Amino acid sequence: MDGALLEPTLYTVKGIAVLDNDGNRILAKYYDKTIFPTAKEQRTFEKNLYNKTHRANAEIIMLDGLTCVYRSNVDLFFYVMGSSHENELILTSVLNALYDSISLILRKNVEKRGVLESLDICMLALDEICDGGIIIDTDSSSVVSRVALRTDDIPLGEQTVAQVLQSAKEQLKWSLLK
Amino acid sequence: MTKLFQSKDVILRRLVYLGIKELSSIANDVIIVTSSLTKDMTGKEDLYRAAAIRALCSITDGAMLQAIERYMKQAIVDKNSAVSSAALVSSLHLTQLAPEVVKRWVNEAQEAVNSDNIMVQYHALGLLYHIRKSDRLAVTKLVAKLTRMSLKSPYAVCMLIRITAKLIEEEDSGSESPLFEFIESCLRHKSEMVVYEAAHAIVNLKRTTSRELAPAITVLQINCGSPKPTVRFAAVRTLNQVAISHPAAVTACNMDLENLITDPNRSIATLAITTLLKTGAESSVERLMKQIATFVSEISDEFKIVVVQAIRSLALKFPRKHSSLMNFLSAMLRDEGGLEYKASIADTIITIIEDNPEAKETGLAHLCEFIEDCEHTSLAVRILHLLGKEGPRTKQPSRYIRFIYNRVILENPTVRAAAVSAMAQFGATCPDLLENIQVLLARCQMDSDDEVRDRATYYSNILGQQDKSLYNNYILDTLQVSVPSLERCLKEYILGTTEEPFDMKTVPIASVPSLEDKETKQKSEGMLHSAGPIKPAPISREENYAEKLSAIPGIQSIGPLFKSSDMVELTESETEYYVRCIKHCYKHHMVLQFDCLNTLSDQLLENVKVHLDPSEGYAIMGEISCPKLPYNETGTCYVILKFPENDLPNTIGTFGAVLKFIVKDCDPTTGLPDTDEGYDDEYMLEDLEITLGDQIQKVNKVSWNTAWDEADQSYIEMEDTYSLSSMNTLDEAVKSIIQFLGLQPAERTDKVPEGKSTHTLLLAGVYRGGIDILVKAKLALADGVNMQLKVKSTQEEVADLIISAVG
């Protein structure tokens, strides 16, 4: 381990991945072209990563010259990868942003089924958290507000009266048009 | 695609953007979507705008950027933070594409730094730094301004710390500077992230003293007790780094580290242990070993290797503890594990054996046991080779033969072949075992594999001759040529007329890897020498150069390359022109390769050559200049010299050197010259020395003593005594002799045992033209160091040269 000073750059995140409990990929994005340029290499890395992490819930691991922070829930594993010299706490903050946003989107039911059902929104959230390796936002509520969650996805209890009225009106309209 | 833009559905619209970004690298006709995106970007809906900007910037090119420049400038200072961030991030991506355009947005970025939103601040700082990073003055100003105004975003502060640390490093300023004070003040920041970043920066600054380290260490120590595994991991990892440079500073944390050994996260525990091993005292070694043993089976191979490496350095530090370390290693060897892990353990044992003669017997015994059930062929082969080299010199060589012969019975052909070679080594060095070996070899001749049979027959024949010199040449000292060049020479030979027998002497001799190489590779000698037929030898430096040089007309006619020296710097690395020289030695010629680097961005150099002022006897055969040398590129020019004939003492000399070239002023950004006319200029270089070492190739003699005794008949012997008054220790003297003569120390005589006042250094090498040299230097510590030098060589002149050169 050499004590190289960190190069001041905004490109912090090397990759983000969400895997299921068999180690298969649900969502993954790699931002550094020099590591894992092909899908095959990415998959081997993911498999490897999964094998090392699915048993021990240890939050952080060094693998293939990358620092990976991770956390799991039910049948999902969330990973954020950075260079081995990167500030681990920054990576953790990205991981938490990812997890919290997805948890908000899925209304706390963080499961494989939920992610697959709202895969589109999860992808948008991922894009809002990190763009080309630069952290865009780590505040989960602002991320969620930016991905424009469909109003009808929010349960009735959490909607304002106006929103309920709006959706009721629309539904009525559709039924008339049919 | 364009149809999708009509969609009202927000999510779909956004997914379209995402799709565009993904496709951006392969799309050609982006013009169609550009207009749609521009519309979205300037539209009212904030939700679209940010994403549209990012999508647009990922597909745009230099020409189109001009068109949207105005919108980008507006977007950067937009009051919506998402839009502003998106614009800043996209600008940063664009700097790779069109740095010039983005540079014009500096003012807007400056304004964005003052934004209230934390992310905007962070992105703006990143962009500003990126634009100005080549201009140190501007960066200094930026830092000075920002450190005073206290940024809100923890990310921005982290970024600022990194920039500051880099500045400190470049300026070499001490702890009094305001920059350092800023970093130190960040240690008291309320965000954990910033505190860690600051501590990390302080630790990694090259010039920090232990006093400056103290506050950072304290912070890390507190972090060690954090409930979050990541924080603990970060802290331990940084402490681990500190332990390398300032072990004393970390001792304060030893208590905390010991608590971490039982951490549920194995990575943290491993790092804690290795840190402790680095800082620990001799007395605590055994206790730590016990603790490692309890969890070593649970951690991943990578960390096991880290542990093994820590043990290796420990073994070198405390040689007396070898028995407990060795036991531990052998226990690890028996555990499950991948090849790399096993190899690193074997390496460690081999290093310990080499370094510590006391540990040799136990180490070899452990290795013997290990190969009994080793599933990795390459590792088994390596250990067998080592047994062959070291086994015969132990007190009881016969016990190893059983292990080796077991391999012959049980293993695959590759291992069997290696075992046969190892046995032959025993036969050659231990006359009393010869008879038994012959019986075993005879049995091996019935083997089913060709290679094994061949080797067995070959060795049993040679051993049957009972001739010492044959043993030496064909069993103990294997071929000293580099395999790739042998292959090349044989190919050339086959292509030509094959009437004359192939001459082994024309093949360049493989260079013995230098000590630094070995250290960087962290490999032990035993492994590198086992290369031979088993492992493809890495192409040596010489090979690389030889190929490059032979491509140059005029050079290939002077024969095969004999040796290339290391790089010598002829200027300081910060000067206008940075010149380094490599000396390539041939049989009768010397080729000097000058690597020049132009560090002036406003100059284009042409027709660059080095003018030499050779010493007496040398003749310049030719010069090859470098036609063009633009900024920040390395060009190469050559000078070919002919060694003085029949006048060996004069081959050592000092040359004056001047760099000559034509300067053309040019535009720093484009690199194109302003005018066609340039002017001649020259630049004084430091004097270039050609030493004896440049003309000698190192050769590794395994059994130096037999070679020396044998050399009586054909070699000419000379001797002389010297007093080296400038040397104070034997170690120092040995090092400088090796350095000066460029010979390879044999039989590990380069290591002086501690506390002795006399030492014998054995050296071997080949002078250019294939003349063997053996040197025995007896050193005695008196006032300074007295040395008696005996030189044996096939040619009188060469021996004479060495004797006279030393004086």
Q: How much is the radius of gyration of chain A in Å?
A: 19 Å
Name the overall outline of chain A. elongated
Radius of gyration of chain B, taken over Cα atoms and rounded to an integer in Å: 33 Å
Instruction: Return the domain count of chain A.
Output: 2
Dominant shape of chain B: globular
The CATH architecture term of the largest domain in chain A is 2-Layer Sandwich
Order of helices and strands of chain A: EEHEEEHHHEEHH
Largest sheet of chain A: 5 strands, antiparallel
Assembly category:
heterodimer
Please identify the top-level CATH class of the largest domain in chain A: Alpha Beta
Helix-strand makeup class of chain A: alpha+beta
Largest sheet of chain B: 6 strands, antiparallel
For the largest interface, the chains and their residue counts are: A-B, 42 and 60 residues
Quote the average pLDDT of chain A: 77
Q: Please give the order of strands in the largest beta sheet of chain A.
A: 2-1-5-4-3
Low-confidence region ranges of chain B? 511-539
- β-strand percent of chain A reads 15-25%
Measure the end-to-end span of chain A.
67 Å
- Extended strand count of chain B: 16
Spans of chain A of 5+ residues with little confidence (pLDDT < 50)? 151-156
Outline the structure in words.
By secondary structure, chain A is of the alpha+beta class. Chain A has two domains: 145 residues, Beta-Lactamase (2-Layer Sandwich); 25 residues. Helix content of chain A is 42%, strand content 21%. Chain A is built from six helices and seven strands, in the order ββαβββαααββαα. In chain A, the strands form two sheets. A five-stranded antiparallel beta sheet of chain A has the order 2-1-5-4-3, sandwiched between helices. Chain A has a two-stranded antiparallel sheet with strand order 6-7. In chain A, strand 6 and strand 7 form a beta hairpin. The longest helix of chain A has 18 residues. About 3% of the residues of chain A have low confidence. By secondary structure, chain B is an alpha+beta fold. Chain B contains 35 helices and 16 strands. In chain B, the strands form three sheets. In chain B, strands 1, 2, 3, 4, 6 and 8 form a six-stranded antiparallel beta sheet that branches. In chain B, strands 11, 12, 13, 14, 15 and 16 form a six-stranded antiparallel beta sheet that branches. In chain B, strands 7-5-9-10 form a four-stranded antiparallel beta sheet, with no helix packed on it. In chain B, strand 15 and strand 16 form a beta hairpin. Chain B is globular and about 100 Å long. Chain B starts with 9 loop residues before the first helix and ends with a helix. The relative contact order of chain B is 0.03. Chains A and B meet through strand 3, helix 2, helix 4 and strand 7 of A and helix 1, helix 3, helix 5, helix 8 and helix 10 of B. Chain A: It is a peripheral membrane protein. Chain A: It is found in: Cytoplasm; Golgi apparatus membrane; Cytoplasmic vesicle, COPI-coated vesicle membrane.
